[in-house]
Amino acid sequence: xxxxxxxxxSTSIYFWDIGHPDGILQAIMTRxxxxxxFPMVTTAVRRWLWVGWGTALAVWTYMLLSPExxxxxxxxxxxxxxxxxxxxxxxxxxxxxAIIVPYLTDSIRFRRTLWxxxxxxxxxxxxxxxxxxxxxxxxxxxxxxxxxxMGLMLSRWLTxxxx
Length: 163
Hints:
163 residues; alpha+beta; 9% strand; elongated
């Protein structure tokens, strides 16, 4: 779908297919007069990203602090794979949240604040876990931080590459 603006603006906005190689996060692109393409996240899209990101973070927090969720996951995952699955979820979960950060705000300072907050969130949830019937582990806090770092690097690669 292409929306053509009046000639005085000389810009068109179009929506990528979900299957496009640049992925769904760069769903809205704009093309300048010179033909250069760059991502544009509108206010409405950004608002929904915030809602989704915040909701997902709330669910993630509940999962990290709920003994019931831990028991249920323990029953689903085979015994031989529980350790790897558990630690992999820590890394992947925090990487996911970190990857989304550049699409939430254009402010570099606020991005850094959000990334730091994710690290603090990982440490804080591990500190709270012993009080809610789970075992908080330093190793998990380190893996959460590794996940944020991996997500940060991947998000930088996704937002700076030109194709």
